[in-house]
Here is the input.
Amino acid sequence: MMTNRKLNTYVKKGLSLIILSVLGLLAFIPLYWMVITAFKEPTLTMKFPPELFPKNPTWANFAELFRRKELFQWTLNSIIVAGTVTLAQIFVCALAGYAIAKKKFPGARIFFWIYIGSMMIPKQVTLVPLYILISKFQMINTYAGLILPGIAAPFGVFLMRQFMVTLPDEVVEAARIDGASEFKTFTRIILPMSKPALAVLGIFTFVGEWNSFLWPLIVTNTSNMKTLQAGLALLQEEVPMKFSYLMAGATYSAIPMFIVFLVFQKYFLRGITVGAVK
Here is the structure.
């Protein structure tokens, strides 16, 4: 009986491994095709049957890409916007999560669920009113117009609240007895204890803002204010059929995401269970 159980366990693990390997391979194929196309000659991108391994890889596409002066301005804009939004969102969402999780006030639960319910509203629905609001504040084609709409995110508040609910109330009460102010309790006790959730929120926010395309494309109207993703869209308008050149731009824009994933891989995995176990 025990042997059969072990055999069934091994079979299930083997099947799970095979299924996950196939799914992982399917997810990897578009990324692999993007990278190898970036190293191909433009005349070989439409070759049939396609080359799975370039025989004569070239850096010419990247050299042509880096000759564009706007590329580095777009990269700088993306770093400024993604970095600022990430830091601001971590602080704002942590404050909101702390207030909802540890403070008792009338309508706290209702307020929380109404705020979280806004996650179900598609972003495309809010584009027009948001654009009108930013326009009235004269923030079109500015860093403020790119940054401010992304600071308060329902997902970030939800994530921080779910994590902070698991923190013991006794720690907060002990800080109050010792005479710590609310802000000191938050910065000296709550934030250090919330590092895993803060790291996960920071990673998700940075990746989302770095890859943001539609809002930067709408709210900017000059080339020098566009972020990298919106700027690369201009390349497609200039050379729509030069796929190797376009894939070089896509590969360049994806490099920071590779670095973030490799460095913070354990936090990505931990993000699946943050706030799930009390």
